[in-house]
TrEMBL record, chain A:
Native source organism of the sequence: Formosa algae
Leader sequence segment: 1-19
Source organism superkingdom: Bacteria
NCBIfam families to which the protein is assigned, alphabetical: GLPGLI
Descriptive protein name: GLPGLI family protein
Pfam families from the UniProt entry: Porph_ging (PF09697)
Keywords, sorted A to Z: Signal
Automatic annotation (TrEMBL), chain B:
Alphabetical list of Pfam families matching this protein: CarboxypepD_reg
Annotated source species: Formosa algae
Alphabetical list of InterPro entries matching this protein: CarboxyPept-like_regulatory
Name of the protein in its database record: TonB-dependent receptor
UniProt cross-references to Gene3D superfamilies, sorted A to Z: Carboxypeptidase-like, regulatory domain
Length: 241, 879
């Protein structure tokens, strides 16, 4: 009887520990994937575009993103790198790519039903875009594959890409999520699926997970910096100008 | 994937842990066995409840997962009615270690862009791309050719993945033939698909047109022809030819209306557009100041006839080499008249000269440029270009001068032949991640031969030119100017680390020039009286070499990027007049500094400082006399060295999309330590001038500010400008300090309605104060301009513009108003290739435009005659 009570108490402890909101950290990398891109593909892209793509790929190699999440909150950002200034002699791929993304952060809170995004605008400084959580029309397929040890399902987003900040004119978003890690999160603001997204592609730009750390001793801080503005208001002001 | 709607049935229940506590945020995934059925999922609420909508008769695999718990599986076999299923999830007992995923995402097989197959949307009546675009869902095209897709503006048009001519949307949308289009792709977040350099986080929408296999080559363009009152004509064809390997663009213009259809903007586009010019800093300013640009900008003639043709070609010679070339040919005849009142600021008594100048100019010139761009790899870039210019112009002037000193009529005839050739090579090489080097070399050759003949029946320039008495005086001047110049600059860009860069420059600049001048009097008996004995006639050679080395150090300090630099110049030069030769040399240290600060709120501040030195050209050094005009002679100074001045400038700018506001402020201050000064001996209206290096300091500053704000459909702008400068005047052995102050304020308002008429209103006030030898002169100019444009009935465009200028010269009690108005009505039915326009230019038949200028010892008020009233009727046909 005593053993059972001890066992039960231990189980209670465990369940309390796990019932608590532990934080998981996932690291992602990014890549620009083109089918057989060669420097001489001038029938598809212009010379300067190919040069830009080729140079950018090496820049993206240095990027690492972090996603922190618990049961109901997530935060995604690009890990800081020391890049310095642009050189007047060219060769600024890493600097240009990094400066474009370094201030972008994505926060979600399922309890408060709010999405926040930090974004550096040209001319208005750091903005804090606010969105109400919306329903996303994912098309989940029965296609599966393994990423690491996790079984992943494929899901496509053909319409309603506005919710993630892409217009319907942009390439389809297709992701691979694993129900084995049961959180509706992923890189950037992608999510709303019954599992963590381990790979996400928008056209040839792909984000993919490289490591998962459980129970990390980190807190997920809500985004507070920047000038608050709703995404609709921001879109509206751009359209007029 | 259209499946008929089938009745859905529900599977619901609760998810709890082993202690019977409900689990919130548990995921339930239902994967069907058949691929034609959708995958479904549900997430439990705070009471652990879930609900799934399933298709009856289908087998599903249910996966239930929750963070920290063991995943549960279940199979559901062909249920036919609503069902319940509960799940219990035990705690995950296994240790959760860090997982490292060794994974590389596979390469995507297709290009993943949204494309519209136009065949499914068109009816066959469409003529141009704009007509096709209007049929596509979510796409809007306005009258101007601006396209928006789902509210987002399309800013770039590509054809077959390449920029279409200059990339602007208007040309493509109004001209691409509808029957050549196969597919239209819209590329959003263009930066994700095929990025462009230097783009900040912008949302650019680009449109890519894919052409049908057999329709990849086509012509398009339009032809405009018209005539009017009195005896006016205009013929203006514009032709384009497009194929994926080459493009042609021809613009022709034959008219006598004084209006040039080839604008300065067209010239910039021929040169390669603004973006190419930015690469070669300083060249835009060179372009805008060269004599062809000046010609393009001038619109004040009494009469003007011209025949003009411009051809631009671009061709991809090999996958790595691009060729672009243009040639411009222009032949023009024009008549100008200018009536000037010159106030001479003589020490004793200022006096006034009234002068009438009537000129007839006949000019022919051709300019051409060929550029080869070779990009062998991502690390190398080679550009070769050659520019040539040939010109021949003849100018006949009739000058009548009237003053207390002189009453005379002079006829001038001059002929100028010019030849110019430039070869340029630019090579960029990336050696490693930290080193890039550029080499730039160019060579210029120019040959100018101006011949001038002055004819008058009165003795001019008495005592200065040794005229022999005659009934009619004919003075001839021959000038031949010949310059060879070469430049070579090597620059190495070294990235020491992220916060420190060092740029080293090594260069040389050579200029070898020769000036030959000869002045004679052609006597009525046919004999020649040469002026050499009076100090005229040059055979002057000037050879100049500048070798320099420089170093710039760029570093980051917080939000600022700073770049101090220092250049050291070794100058050698040799001058020779007939047999007398002298060699001189000097060294100079020129520092410079640049700072760029980017504030977090979007403001950007630029600061620039440099110490400058310039040497003069051969014409300023040639040490014997030449005739500059009918009333002045000039002698150069072979001892001239360089001038020296400091310049510091600031620029603050902000551009806010959210507030619809942008502003910029620029300020510059110049301090001259040594400057070139003309020394004048003035006698009546005749002067003898020479040039020296003067070392009393002079300074000037100017400030320019501009702010524009948009509120709904209105845009307001305010511009301000202020300038102060002081300078010494060396006149008749006296040294005087003069000052000039100018203030200008301009306000404007413009409307941007879609259906209502649009108005543009502008008012400016300009006050200029000149202070010279105790004489103060104030000019006040007020300008009011208004323009209205009204598009109505979907076929008519009515435009009218009006300008009123009130000019006041307070001290002379001169008060003059000038107004000008133009109006036009254009008719073109949508989808029609015909357009008609009727227009009136200079409706009030205003005769002249007033202006003023201030020089060394002269204040001029001039009336420049302009084209009289014209009524034109034009027909336009679109190919």
């Amino acid at each position: 009887m005593k053993k059972n009570i001890c066992g039960l108490l231990l189980l209670l402890c465990f369940s309390t520990v796990f019932a608590q909101n532990t934080v998981t950290e996932v690291t992602y990398k990014t890549v620009l994937n083109f089918a057989n891109l060669s420097e001489k593909m001038t029938d598809k892209y212009s010379k300067s575009e190919i040069n830009t793509i080729v140079n950018s790929r090496s820049g993206y190699d240095a990027f690492n993103y972090t996603l922190l999440f618990n049961n109901y909150e997530s935060l995604f950002w690009l890990n800081p790198i020391e890049v310095g200034m642009e050189s007047e002699g060219g060769n600024n791929n890493l600097v240009t790519l990094y400066n474009r993304e370094k201030d972008s952060k994505f926060y979600k809170n399922l309890k408060d039903k709010i999405w926040l995004e930090n974004f550096m605008s040209s001319g208005d400084g750091l903005l804090l875009l606010t969105l109400k959580e919306e329903k996303v029309e994912w098309d989940i397929t029965t296609e599966t594959k393994k990423i690491g040890k996790q079984t992943c399902y494929k899901a496509n987003l053909n319409t309603g890409k506005k919710v993630y900040g892409y217009s319907d004119m942009s390439p389809d978003i297709s992701v691979w999520f694993t129900p084995e890690i049961a959180v509706p999160f992923g890189p950037k603001s992608f999510g709303n699926l019954p599992g963590l997204i381990l790979e996400a592609s928008i056209g040839p730009r792909t984000y993919y997970a490289t490591s998962i750390k459980y129970n990390v001793d980190k807190t997920i801080n809500k985004l507070t910096e920047g000038k608050p503005i709703t995404r609709e208001a921001y879109r509206a002001s751009r359209a007029k100008f | 994937m259209a499946t008929a709607y089938t009745q859905q049935i529900t599977l619901s229940g609760t998810v709890k842990d082993s202690l019977q506590m409900p689990l919130e945020y548990a995921n339930i995934l239902a994967v069907p066995d058949s691929t034609s059925t959708k995958v479904n999922f549900s997430i439990t609420d705070n009471s652990g409840f879930y609900r799934l909508n399933l298709t009856p008769g289908v087998r599903y695999t249910i996966t239930v997962s929750h963070l920290g718990h063991e995943t549960q599986y279940a199979k559901v076999f062909s249920i036919t009615e609503n069902n319940k299923k509960n799940f219990i999830m035990p705690i995950q007992t296994s240790q959760l270690d860090q997982v490292d995923i060794a994974y590389t995402p596979p390469i995507s097989i297709k290009s993943d862009t949204i494309s519209y197959r136009t065949d499914s949307f068109v009816t066959g009546e469409e003529r141009k791309l704009r007509d096709v675009l209007k049929k596509l869902p979510g796409i809007e095209v306005d009258r101007d050719g601006k396209v928006t897709a789902n509210g987002k503006p399309v800013s770039k048009v590509l054809v077959e993945n390449k920029t279409f001519f200059t990339g602007g949307t208007k040309l493509a949308i109004n001209n691409l033939p509808a029957d050549a289009i196969d597919r239209i792709e819209l590329l959003d977040n263009y930066t994700d698909v095929a990025m462009l350099k230097n783009l900040q986080n912008s949302e650019i929408l680009a449109m890519n047109i894919k052409l049908k296999e057999n329709k990849k080559q086509f012509w398009f363009g339009d032809l405009e022809a018209g005539g009017g009152v009195k005896d006016r004509y205009v013929v203006h064809p514009t032709l384009f030819y497009y194929s994926p390997e080459s493009t042609f663009n021809f613009i022709g213009d034959v008219n006598n209306t004084g209006h040039k259809s080839f604008t300065f903007r067209d010239y910039v586009d021929f040169e390669g557009g603004y973006s190419k010019l930015n690469k070669q800093s300083g060249s835009y300013y060179t372009l805008s100041n060269d004599d062809f640009s000046t010609y393009l900008k001038n619109e004040d003639y009494k009469a003007h006839t011209n025949q003009f043709g411009a051809l631009n070609v671009r061709r991809a010679l090999t996958p790595l080499t691009d060729l672009s070339a243009y040639v411009i040919v222009n032949n023009a005849t024009s008549e100008n008249q200018r009536n000037t009142t010159n106030t001479y600021l003589n020490n004793d008594t200022p006096f006034v000269e009234d002068r009438i100048t009537i000129s007839q100019l006949q000019t022919f010139f051709t300019i051409g440029k060929i550029t080869l761009d070779y990009d062998p790899s991502a690390n190398e870039d080679l550009a070769l270009s050659t520019v040539f210019k040939i010109a021949n112009s003849t100018n006949t002037d009739y000058i009548n001068t009237n003053s207390t000193y002189d009453n005379n009529t002079i006829n001038t005839e001059s002929n100028l032949k010019q030849l110019f050739l430039n070869l340029d090579l630019r090579y960029t090489r990336k050696f490693s991640k930290n080193h890039t080097a550029t080499l730039e070399m160019d060579y210029n050759f120019s040959y100018d031969k101006p011949l001038t003949e002055w004819r008058t029946d009165e003795d001019i320039l008495e005592g200065l030119i040794p005229l022999e008495t005659d009934t009619v005086y004919t003075i001839l001047q021959t000038k031949k100017l010949n310059i060879h110049a070469a430049n070579a600059v090597v620059k190495d860009y070294w990235v020491l680390n992220e916060k420190n860069h060092v740029y080293t420059t090594l260069g040389t600049q050579l200029a070898f020039s020769n000036l030959y001048t000869n002045n004679t009097q052609l006597l009525s008996n046919g004999m020649l009286n040469n002026f050499d004995s009076a100090g005229f006639g040059n055979d002057f050679t000037y050879q100049f070499i500048d070798n320099f080395i420089g170093m710039e150090y760029k570093f980051q300090l917080g939000i600022a990027t700073l770049k101090p630099g220092i250049f050291y110049h070794f100058y050698f030069w040799n001058t020779q007049q007939y047999d007398l030769a002298t060699t001189r040399n000097t060294n100079l240290l020129l520092p410079q500094f640049n700072a760029e600060i980017k504030f977090s709120n979007g403001n950007a501040l630029d600061v620039d400082y440099n110490l400058n030195a310039q040497f003069q050209t051969v014409e300023q050094l040639a040490s014997r006399y030449v005739l500059s005009s009918f009333n002045s002679v000039f002698k150069g100074n072979e001892q001239l060295e360089h001038d020296l001045y400091h310049r510091i400038s600031f620029r603050l700018s902000k551009y806010s999309t959210l507030k619809g506001l942008n502003y910029s402020i620029r300020a510059a201050y110049n301090k001259k330590e040594k400057q070139f000064k003309h020394v004048t001996q003035l006698d009546g209206i005749e002067s003898v001038n020479t040039i020296i290096l003067f070392d009393r300091p002079e300074d000037s500053w100017n400030i320019f500010g501009n702010i524009s704000k948009r509120i709904n459909r209105l845009r307001f702008k305010l511009t301000g400008y202020a300038n102060y400068s002081n300078f010494y005047q060396l006149l008749n052995s006296e040294i005087n300090k003069n000052t000039s102050k100018t203030v200008m304020v301009k306000t404007g308002l413009s409307t941007h309605f879609k259906t209502w008429p649009n108005l543009e209103l502008e008012y400016s006030k300009n006050i200029s104060l000149y202070k010279a030898i105790g004489l103060n002169t104030t000019y006040n100019t007020d300008v009011l301009s208004a323009a209205v444009e009204y598009d109505f009935l979907n076929a008519f465009i009515f435009k009218i513009d009006y300008e009123l200028e009130i000019f006041e010269h307070k001290d002379q009690a001169v008060y003059n108003t000038f107004d000008n108005a133009n109006a036009s009505l254009f008719y073109q039915r949508e989808n029609s290739s015909w357009g008609f326009e009727i227009g009136a230019h200079n409706m009030f038949n205003t005769t002249f435009r007033q202006g003023n200028s201030f020089s060394n010892y002269l204040i001029s008020d001039s009336k420049t005659y302009i084209m009289p009233r014209m009524l034109l009727f034009k027909v336009q046909y679109k190919l």
